[in-house]
Amino acid sequence: MAIKLEKPDQYKEFLDKFDVFLFDCDGVLWSGNEPLPGVKDTMELLRSSGKQIIFVSNNSTKSREDYMKKINAHEIEAKLEEIYPSAYSSAIYVKKVLKLPEDKKVFILGEGGIESELDRVGVKHTGGTDASLRRAVNSDDLNTIRPDPSIGAVLCGMDRHVTYLKYCMAYQYLQDPNCAFLLTNQDSTFPTNGTFFPGSGSISYPLIFSTGRTPKILGKPYDEMMEAIVAGVNFDRKKACFVGDRLNTDIQFAKNSGLGGSLLVLTGVSQESEIYEKDAPVVPDYYINSLGDLAKKA
Ligand SMILES: O=C(O)COP(=O)(O)O
Ligand SMILES: [Mg+2]
Question: What GO molecular-function term can you cite, just one (predicted)?
Fold first, then answer.
């Protein structure tokens, strides 16, 4: 049964239960670029209480450095080794698990965050932010785009410049069963500016539907994200709480990872009613209107 945190004495009791807080970003720390009220105060309270902080985002448009700039821009303290976006977990997977051969490239249906993280681990890539692909497809394309043995993987994420041409390229590359099909995350919607728009999972769905292939997903709620985190930072899972806004990624991730607890905030995707739906697939241990409430005193 989920416990709603509504009063300052509950906030203190909750915070005292955990030594580590893992934070989702979109819908928790901010909505798009809009700050959420009181988040800065809560983060300062946690830091001053000696809590360990880790940031874990499914948003693959940004690299670790990009994320550190954004977190700092919101007046929240962060160190690079505390930041784990899905572009980072995906690059780690391609390098260390897939072990892409040197002569192979990754075709990216996504943005600069994925390119930067693949660069960091020395994996060659194509597509992504290549502006020459931001155009209509033509008959020459349809005569020439075919499976390409130099493409060892198609890696999809949020792509705000997606085109039919890019879909044609990814579709053809994925006709080769030796070409891996990877997603940074499968979030159906993206919370921003107080509303929602199609998310990474909706950008990649046309490829899932057209190829009939099932991609490997490298963000929350899957183990590959936790494997990337524990390779970078030590923490006690049983004393850790995941704070997120989406039940089927963030709260599910907390359960899959055996964390000590989970807190759903109601400033992003999931709503209070979903917690009480009959046979709700996943329920948080705690929930609160907004992360900023935790800093409120009696
Ligand atoms: O980019 C998304 O869709 C979600 O990102 P988040 O994991 O930081 O909420
Ligand atoms: Mg979120």
Answer: metal ion binding
- What is the C-alpha separation between 17 and 15, in angstroms, rounded? 5
* Cα(143) to centroid(ligand 2), Å: 41
Q: Which residues are catalytic, by number? A: 24, 26
Reported confidence tier of residue 194, pLDDT bands at 50, 70, 90? confident
Ordered by where they begin, the domains of the chain are 18-86+221-271 (3.40.50.1000), 88-217 (3.40.50.1000)
Ligand nearest to the CA of 84: 1
Going from the Cα of 191 to the center of ligand 2, the distance in angstroms, rounded, reads: 7
Alpha-carbon gap, residue 215 to 260, rounded angstroms: 29
DSSP 96: I
| CA distance linking residue 122 with residue 61, whole number of Å | 19
What 3-state class would DSSP assign to 145?
coil
